[in-house]
Design brief:
Blueprint: E1 3-5, E2 16-20, H1 26-29, H2 33-43, H3 50-58, E3 63-68, E4 71-76, H4 78-82, E5 85-89, E6 92-96, H5 102-111, H6 118-121, H7 133-149, H8 156-168, H9 179-182, H10 189-197, H11 200-207, H12 213-225, H13 237-255, H14 259-273
Parallel strand pairs: 2-4
Antiparallel strand pairs: 1-2, 3-4, 5-6
Length: 278
């Protein structure tokens, strides 16, 4: 069934059709005529195989946004969104029900359709990591901002947990790891209240982080959740501490009573091997 998402009151965005993977190809056949013409031509596909082509675009994700000119389509996969998190941490396998939701997915995808000045996007681009990180961080900030405006900021923690859990998996998702820009808005009630009263442009200006920090966080992530090979380049001690502050809420939720011992052991090891005690 084709549904239409009315986007972000207060922002200049049109309504956008939404199709779920389980409803393809029938949903694809109900798309606006303009999309039914543009998408098959873009992929060089027969219009009758459009549903299969759309399904492939999800590529294991819970949702994606496809754009062609001024046309857009949001694809979702409710089954993928509902899958539990199964993670290997500290030689132990943990399973947790999904913290993701269709609402979070749609709020995030809306963020990919924003029309923003380049001066607002530029501070979220950096040459040291995934090319798409800035766009994904902006989309997540949009989702968090919308939750704050609705009085539902507690759901922002689910977004933080989702990004952290996806970092801990066997294929770490650094492109979507927006925790460094999300967490500051959730750490105190005062910051959350402030978020709800800002324009989104103001949110972007106030959420900029020091992008040279991100490669250090990637080093720490590979060291903690990767195969454990390679050297241990220096990471400033404050960044090691901040790394743990960002991961701690999610690790504690995932590991329960196992977390304190794990944290003490790993933190000491990380500080020592980073040569932070020199």
């Amino acid at each position: 069934m084709l549904t239409t998402l009315l986007l972000a009151a207060g922002l200049a965005m049109p309504s956008v059709p939404v199709c779920d993977r389980a409803e393809l190809p029938a949903c694809a056949g109900s798309l606006p005529p303009s999309l039914l013409q543009i998408l098959p031509a873009h992929w060089g596909r027969d219009p009758h195989t459009l549903g299969h082509a759309l399904s492939r675009q999800l590529a294991g994700q819970g949702a994606v946004t496809l754009t062609q000119g001024d046309q857009a389509l949001i694809l979702t996969d409710r089954r993928r969104i509902a899958q539990p998190h199964i993670l290997l941490v500290g030689y132990q396998v943990y399973e947790l029900p999904s913290v993701h939701s269709l609402e979070l997915a749609l709020l995030h995808e809306q963020g990919h359709l924003l029309t923003l000045a380049e001066t607002l996007r530029t501070p979220y681009r950096f040459p040291y990591g995934p090319a798409l990180w800035g766009e994904e961080a902006i989309a997540d900030l949009h989702a968090l901002w919308q939750l704050a405006r609705r009085g539902e900021l507690d759901q922002g923690w689910s977004l933080v947990h989702l990004r952290n859990f996806n970092l801990m998996g066997s294929a770490p998702d650094w492109a979507h790891w927006s925790t460094p820009v999300l967490l500051p808005w959730l750490e105190t009630p005062e910051r959350g209240a402030q978020l709800a009263g800002l324009s989104f442009d103001q949110v972007l200006v106030q959420s900029v982080i020091a992008t040279p920090d991100l490669p250090h966080f990637r080093t720490l992530g590979r060291r903690q959740f990767g195969p454990g090979r390679g050297g241990y380049p220096y990471v400033p001690a404050p960044l090691v501490t901040r790394w743990w502050q960002m991961l701690e809420p999610s690790l504690a939720l995932l590991m329960g009573v196992d977390y304190p011992d794990y944290r003490d052991r790993q933190y000491r090891l990380m500080m020592a091997k980073s040569a932070n005690l020199r």
